[in-house]
Amino acid sequence: MISRTAAANRKIATRLSAFALAAGMGALLAVPSAHASRFDGSWDMLLQTTNGHCGKIKIDVAVTGGEISATGGRFVFHKIALGGHVGPAGHVNIKGIAGPRTAWGTGRFGREHAQGKWHGVGPSGKCNGVWAAERV
To answer: Are 103 and 120 within 8 A, CB to CB?
Structure first.
């Protein structure tokens, strides 16, 4: 039979080990990837339609740990959601959704500017064009 003191010590050791593991994992996950950090920050993005009926679309963008998200912007009364990742050399693949409309883009981020191409589809058909962004 195990003494109460030994059982209590084992329980405390297990909890401390779990806490240490959780703290270590949290520290690792909180550190943004080194290659993406140079693109992190706020960006103003403008999509220009070259084919179709989508017009100009302005989006406020955040890059955090290399991950892209929209912080502001609407298209046809729908909030814009963005997702994507900036790679080590600045290459990016982006997906955007605004209500029933979806768009995909590719391009490249630089130190202060970014640019690329996009294409999308929605209830009124297909659109495509170019995009550009500037660090805010």
So the answer is: yes
The CATH T-level fold of domain 37-135 is: Lipocalin (2.40.128)
In sequence order, the β-bridge partners of residue 104 are 95, 119
Compute the residue count for the chain: 136
Nearest alpha carbon to residue 93 among 80, 82, 78, 81: 82
Torsion of CA 68, 69, 75, 77, to 10 degrees: 170
Give the pLDDT confidence of 45-78 residue by residue, as tens digits.
999 999 999 999 999 999 999 999 999 999 999 9
Contacts of residue 133, Cβ cutoff 8 Å, sequence gap at least 6: 43, 44, 45, 46, 61, 109, 113, 114, 115
Between these two residues, 4 and 83, which has the higher pLDDT value?
A: 83
